[in-house]
Write the structure tokens for this entry.
Amino acid sequence: MEAQDASLAEAGERRIDWAMRSMPVLRAVAARFEATRPLEGLRIAACLHVTAETAVLVGALKAGGAAIALAASNPLSTQDDVAAALRTYDIAVHARAGVDRDTYYRHINEALDIAPDLVLDDGCDLVNTLHTERVELLDGVSGGCEETTTGIIRLRQMAAEQALRFPMVAVNDTRTKRMFDNRYGTGQSTLDGIVRATNTLIAGRTVVVAGFGFCGRGVAERARGQGARVIVTEIDPVKALDASLQGYEVLPMSEAARTGDLFVTVTGNRDVIRGEHLAEMKDGAILANAGHFDVEIDVRALEGMAHDVHLGVRPHTDEYVLADGRRLLLLAEGRLVNLTAAEGHPAAVMDMSFSAQALAVAWLAAERARLAPGVYDVPADIDAEVARLKLAAAGIAIDALTPVQAEYLRSWRLGS
Ligand code: NAD
Ligand code: SAH
């Protein structure tokens, strides 16, 4: 190993150790896996953000007996020092920060070369590549887990079209993932990324949040908490009403575009901010995406409208100058701002998502022979166990049902 790689690996190791301190549940799962070896002899191809928190997950799976090949689930999100550290732990990591699209898919293909028994995905790119380019491997795959909302939408569509060839577990849909990772994780790390990239003041600014789902709610809450005036845009009338009743102003993007200082897309949809919206924006408006890939903000339209482009005016910040001199600032090339300009969700949050993920992998390893192709929920007891362990680690006690209460909840004969 080159001296430079060795120092990179050392920095990565320190980062992983730091993350591990805030992941007591995953540490407990890893210890259990080490004793019971639920993944003995299995090969896993994983496509996840290569971060310190993912390294802790991979360590738990390895302790359970698995051999793992890891590719990144985003071209910009890899922490190179963590990747270097993982290689010294005998994990095949195919990832580097700042790669182009072709290299990103080459890395996914290289991870698939392990000929996996199980797969882990975050956005469905690996599963998609398996079903389109690497069909010769499909017979060997007996199941997998999907980490995020958009990945599960795609898997459900594949299942509906009878295209999905093995069972996939919807880790995102556990309460311990969606309620905390998508909401508090995205809320904090998105603002973290925006502030690291621009050093902008949030207080007193108008922040437009596109999408009021689990992630959007988190971003809106945290922006409001820092003193921003928050506007929400939605296409779902119930979500829009919810945002309104929580005191947010709700507007169509065509109107919000004129007043926003800072725009955050978290919809999982494409073309949410389009040329017609960009044309209305104020000088200095900041554009950030924390939803899915680089399609939520129409970057091609922005490039087409720009008379001048200043790349890298700040780290992860590109300035597009319009014909009349207005400047629009695009963060992280329109890709996930929280994993590109910051470090993704804090380890304390990923502790829950990745413990659910690790326990779901072990469940799948045990049950895969009897599962038909399709999308499966994580068993409810795994969800409850993750929450119980997290509460115990925080020293928080809760009440238990008395026998009379349990009976009351089961009965319909008793009147009021
Ligand atoms: P969700 O389904 O709970 O919310 C998405 C919301 O966007 C919905 O309310 C929907 O009505 C709304 N929406 C759709 N199209 C819209 C449009 N054109 N304009 C305005 N609103 C629109 O999903 P979620 O769990 O909040 O996830 C959102 C996205 O973020 C997904 O792509 C998910 O994969 C991703 N995600 C990112 C992170 C991260 O770390 N950055 C974390 C978790 C999830
Ligand atoms: N691959 C797609 C979709 C990613 S969605 C894309 O890059 O656009 C974001 C997912 O990243 C979430 O489901 C969340 O669980 C995960 N994530 C957030 N912070 C993370 C971290 N610190 N380490 C690993 N994964 C993280």
Q: What stands out?
A: Residues 175-198 form the longest helix (24 residues). The pocket of S-adenosyl-L-homocysteine (ligand 2) is lined by residues 48-49, 51, 53-54, 73-74, 122-123, 147-148, 150, 181, 185, 292-293, 336, 339, 344-345, 350, 353 (CB under 6 Å). Residues 3-177+345-393 form a domain with the Rossmann fold fold (CATH 3.40.50.1480).
